[in-house]
Each structure stands twice: as structure tokens, then as C-alpha cells.
Design goal:
Elements: E1 4-8, H1 12-24, E2 28-32, H2 35-44, E3 49-52, H3 61-70, E4 79-83, H4 88-97, E5 101-104, H5 109-119
Parallel strand pairs: 1-2, 1-3, 3-4, 4-5
Length: 121
């Protein structure tokens, strides 16, 4: 059974790149364009991993992580932040909110798959 991953990014190009990379590695992928849309998707389905951008309209990645961690159904799901931000303060905010890991864009497909396999064995 393939692991289910939700990828959240306001950039369709980035969602497509992440989804393509993950699907090629055998994962089942769903997509959402921001945190609010992600919560709707999460309400309807179970996931093994969430990969989210940090800066998005409607609901950013940190708010999404806080919402996911507050909901009992996905509290233990690993969450990776995939962002252009490399600022230490943002990383600390992500960790404090409950993020499992951090990957900076542009990402290498190999690094993404390696990180996904590490947090979602």
C-alpha cells in the first residue's frame, strides 16, 4: 500500500514538481493550494505525511501546522516545510509549531525522496 502524502503550496508549478517527484517514487499524492484548502482535504482523508510551503495566502504553513497539531486525527502525522526561507527564526517558528523537518527550495528530487523516506518509513 503506497504512503499517502498531502502537498500544500500556492504555486501550481511547485505542487506539480513535488507531486511528480513523489509519484515517480511510488507515493500516492494529493494537493492543496493553501492551508485552508489543506484542512478541507485533511478532514476528508488520512495521510502519512504533509509537505507544506511556508508563505501562502489565506492560511500560511505555520498556521496550518498549528491547526493540524491541534486536531486529534492528524496530530502524529509528520510535517515537512518546503520553502525558499532559510532564516533561522522561521525554522524555529516551524519547529515550535510542530514541523518535523525543513527543506529549502529549489529542492533536488533525490533530497526530497530521501527526507520523505526518513520521516515516513
Amino acid at each position: 500500500m503506497a504512503k499517502r502524502i498531502l502537498t500544500v503550496d500556492d504555486s501550481k508549478t511547485m505542487r506539480d514538481m513535488v507531486a511528480f517527484t513523489l509519484k515517480k517514487a511510488g507515493f500516492d499524492v494529493a494537493e492543496a493550494e493553501d492551508g485552508k484548502a489543506a484542512l478541507v482535504v485533511l478532514g476528508a482523508s488520512k495521510f502519512d505525511l504533509i509537505i507544506t510551503d511556508l508563505n501562502m495566502p489565506n492560511m500560511d504553513g505555520i498556521s496550518l501546522i498549528k491547526n493540524v497539531r491541534a486536531a486529534s486525527s492528524h496530530r502524529a502525522v509528520p510535517i515537512l516545510i518546503l520553502t525558499t526561507e532559510s532564516d533561522g527564526t522561521k525554522k524555529a517558528d516551524g519547529k515550535a509549531a510542530g514541523a518535523t523537518g525543513w527543506l529549502v527550495k529549489p529542492f533536488s528530487p533525490e533530497k526530497l525522496i530521501e527526507l520523505v523516506q526518513r520521516v515516513c518509513p
